Amino acid sequence: MSYIEVKNVFKKFGKQEVLNNITFSIEEGERFGLIGPNGAGKSTLIDIITGLTPVNSGQVLIDGMDIRNDRVEIRKQIGLVPQEIALLDHINAKGNLEYFGSLYNLDRTTLKQRVTEALEMTGLRDDVKKTIKAFSGGMKRRLNIAAALLHHPRFLILDEPTVGVDPQSRNKIFEFIKFMNEEHQTTILYTSHYMEEIENLTQRLFILDQGVQVAYGYQDDIKAMVQDKVKWIVEFDNLPSNIKEIISNRIPGIHHLHQEMNRLELMVDPSQFKSTALFHTIAHEELELNSLYKEPLSLEEAFLQLTGKRLRD
């Protein structure tokens, strides 16, 4: 049995179906990604996994316990870092952690030790006496993470923890996640709108769109789901403003066309696309070609093909 099992979960709010037959599992000690466009149902799914929202049907098991029947015991194993920062602005970092630690009924000695430990792990030891108002966005994010660690959770859920943070804080968050996973075998569920974070931090992932499963598995397996598509990169000296319209109308087999300055990315169906048609169009429009080559599909491009959207949409 996997450490976390989500089985045939359905959820409605009124007549609106938010999640439709969601099924996946997470192994203990795994770093697992949950991604999807805005409105995909990720936040609702996290609320269900943590016991904040009930399912209409289906089952969520954590360490063999059913979230419907064993919510109190399960919550002892979960640390949740929410998308919205949840801190008390009028007191300092240490006071915040002492307050949140008291919610876990930790005794005074244990709480003091855990607060020191959490500040150390998140790189905030030297900022312990600063009030939250003096913290940067990145420091607030890290303190939010520290608050979720005080009870030593086996399962840590991070819901877009790098939104609005500076590069230094972002890197510290990455280092911390890997440390918790590798040194403490903490199971990680990570959501983000930055695909490079998903590629760097997670081993397997679940793609959700409009409440339904789009893909589930290792990153290479998900890329293989769109292996019938090929990406061509075409670079020019200059391009006319209507180049996308010209190419789309004249060259069959183009599934998606993206332009960045004088660079075109063509996602094509090789059974229909002919490079000769591209060369004829280039010659006809008297375009100055700099380079033309194929490129392997990235996880971001696989996501685009599977959902029709970019992750940040």
Could you characterize what this model shows?
- The protein has 313 residues and is an alpha/beta fold.
- Helix content is 34%, strand content 28%.
- The chain has helices spanning 42-49, 71-75, 93-102, 108-121, 137-147, 167-184, 195-201, 219-224, 243-250, 275-284, 299-307; strands at residues 4-13, 16-26, 31-35, 57-62, 65-66, 78-81, 155-159, 187-191, 204-209, 212-218, 230-236, 254-260, 263-268, 289-295.
- The chain has a six-stranded mixed β-sheet with strand order 6-7-8-3-9-10, with helices on both faces.
- A hairpin with a 2-residue loop joins strand 1 and strand 2 (16-26).
- Helix 3 (93-102) crosses helix 4 and helix 5 packs parallel to helix 6.
- The longest helix has 18 residues, at 167-184.
- The mean pLDDT is 90.
Characteristics:
313 residues; alpha/beta; Rossmann fold; Alpha-Beta Plaits; 6-stranded mixed sheet; 4-stranded antiparallel sheet; 11 helices; 34% helix; 28% strand; ABC_transporter-like_CS; ATP binding; ABC_transporter-like_ATP-bd; nucleotide-binding
Rounded to the nearest angstrom, the distance between the terminal CA atoms is 35 Å
Number of strands: 14
Percent of residues in β-strands: 25-35%
Structural shape:
elongated
The helix-and-strand class reads alpha/beta
User: What is the alpha-carbon Rg in Å?
Assistant: 23 Å
| Overall pLDDT score | 90
Name of the level-1 CATH class of the largest domain: Alpha Beta
Low-confidence stretches: none
Number of helices: 11
CATH fold-level label of the largest domain: Rossmann fold
Along the chain, the helix and strand elements come as: EEEHEEHEHHHEHEHEEHEHEEHEH
Helical amount: 25-40%
Strand order of the largest sheet: 6-7-8-3-9-10
CATH architecture title of the largest domain: 3-Layer(aba) Sandwich
* Major beta-sheet overview: 6 strands, mixed
Give the CATH H-level superfamily of the largest domain. P-loop containing nucleotide triphosphate hydrolases
Number of domains: 2
Organism: Facklamia miroungae
InterPro entries: AAA+_ATPase (IPR003593), ABC_transporter-like_ATP-bd (IPR003439), ABC_transporter-like_CS (IPR017871), P-loop_NTPase (IPR027417)
Protein name: ABC-2 type transport system ATP-binding protein
GO molecular function: ATP binding; ATP hydrolysis activity
